[in-house]
Amino acid sequence: MRDSAATDISTRLLDWYDRHARDLPWRIPPHSGARPDPYRIWLSEVMLQQTTVAAVKDYFHRFTTRWPDVQALAAADDADVMAEWAGLGYYARARNLLKCARVVAGQGGFPDTREGLQALPGIGPYTSAAIAAIAFDHPETVVDGNVERVMARLFDEHTPLPAAKPRLTALAAGLTPARRAGDYAQAVMDLGATVCTPRSPACGICPLMGDCAARVAGTAAMLPQKSRKASIPVRLGIAYVGRRVDGAWLMERRPDHGLLGGMLGWPGSTWAEMPPIPAAPVAADWTPLGGEVRHTFTHFHLRLTLEVAHLPMNTQGLFVPAQDFTPTALPTVMRKAHALAAPYFTDI
Fold first, then answer.
1. Domain 234-345 carries which CATH code?
2. Which distant-in-sequence residues (6+ apart) come within 8 Å of 229 by Cβ?
3. 28-74: per-residue pLDDT in tens?
4. How far apart are CA 321 and CA 344, in angstroms?
5. Residue 27 has what DSSP assignment?
6. b/e string for 247-262 if b means 16 or more Cβ within 10 A?
């Protein structure tokens, strides 16, 4: 049984949320009487992994306009979905999105339990808890970076992340109410996103300021503590940007598994810490292009040099006609390479 202090905290936070909830395209406002659509909650949660709300909004609108329900997404062409996803990064999420949509459509809808949701492709412990709480109002504990920060400050917890995760999850679970669990989960996340921010938290307007141990101790701004990250290595590579005389672009589709899996991009070398060995995809007069493309992935920085060439009509390979080529459908690193190389082909 929850103690009275925990009940008081969750009640005040829900009262605050009723007045200050963020207006998000996948969210049902508190006390609207409507039930959240599990499809929209699932889609938003997958998109929001490792990504900001601001970055996701336009993608969410395009996806739900083009594929308004899980059945429509399940029937979509893989390449169309991957192209719409381009720029959001972490492309395994898009592949799992399709796998999950097809499983859900095949079984007639989303399961309503955390266990059932977590059995679906691409849904882990956090996402299953978020969908179960927000879409189905089950009293599951939802813990993202915002929630970790709120809990660390509320209880003045100084154990560095990621070691503190189990402790912060337990603290969050102790505050999760049996009723309005979905609204409560969103309330804590909103509090972290708008008031209990990483820098300069607005403690003076926080509904939990009287309960916050870190505010009393004067340690709020330094929490949560984080373990020092190892330095990120740099990998090098070559990208070959070739255009045929009719304007078509030479491209390759990357393997389904691995980085940028299933996405169209420029042919190129492997990405490694040693300088790459040039290996052009087709015979042509390849010319090194000045400058380089720089891009950061989760675990490494990438530096790509470019080679460009005008290709004759009889060149063999995967070509995308000029009228079908859309740079925005490329992953961000490939889009950067196109932007750098495009001036070379202004005569086509």
1. 3.90.79.10
2. none
3. 999 888 899 999 999 999 999 988 999 999 999 999 999 999 999 99
4. 18
5. P
6. ebbbbeebeeeebbeb
d(Cα 4, Cα 348) in Å, to the nearest integer?
Answer: 73
Q: Give backbone dihedrals phi and psi of 211, rounded to 5 degrees, phi first.
A: -105, -5
pLDDT (tens digit per residue) in 291-324 = 899 999 989 999 999 999 999 999 999 999 999 9
Query: Residue 263: which residues within 8 A CB-CB, separation 6 or more?
Result: 82, 86, 91, 253, 254, 330, 331, 334
DSSP for 159-216, written as a single string: SPBTTTHHHHHHHHHHH--SSSHHHHHHHHHHHHHHTS-SSS--GGG-TTGGG-HHHH
Domain boundaries for CATH 3.90.79.10 within the chain: 234-345
3-class state of residue 322 by DSSP: helix
Contact (Cβ atoms closer than 8 angstroms) between residue 263 and residue 86: yes
- Helices (H), strands (E): how many in the chain? 13, 6
CATH topology of domain 4-222: Endonuclease III; domain 1 (1.10.340)
pTM, to two decimals: 0.81
Active-site residue flag, 45: yes
289, 251, 290, 244: which is closest to 267 by C-alpha?
251
Q: From 93, 114, 111, select the one nearest 39 (Cα to Cα).
A: 111
Asked whether the CA dihedral 164, 166, 169, 170 is positive or negative, the reply is negative
Could you give the CA distance from residue 305 to residue 340 in angstroms, rounded to a whole number? 10
Angle value at C-alpha 338, between 91 and 330, nearest 5 degrees: 25
What residues contact residue 347 under an 8 Å CB cut-off, 6+ apart? Answer: none
Q: Which of 45, 84, 148, 157 is flagged as catalytic?
A: 45
Report the distance separating Cα 130 and Cα 251, nearest Å.
39
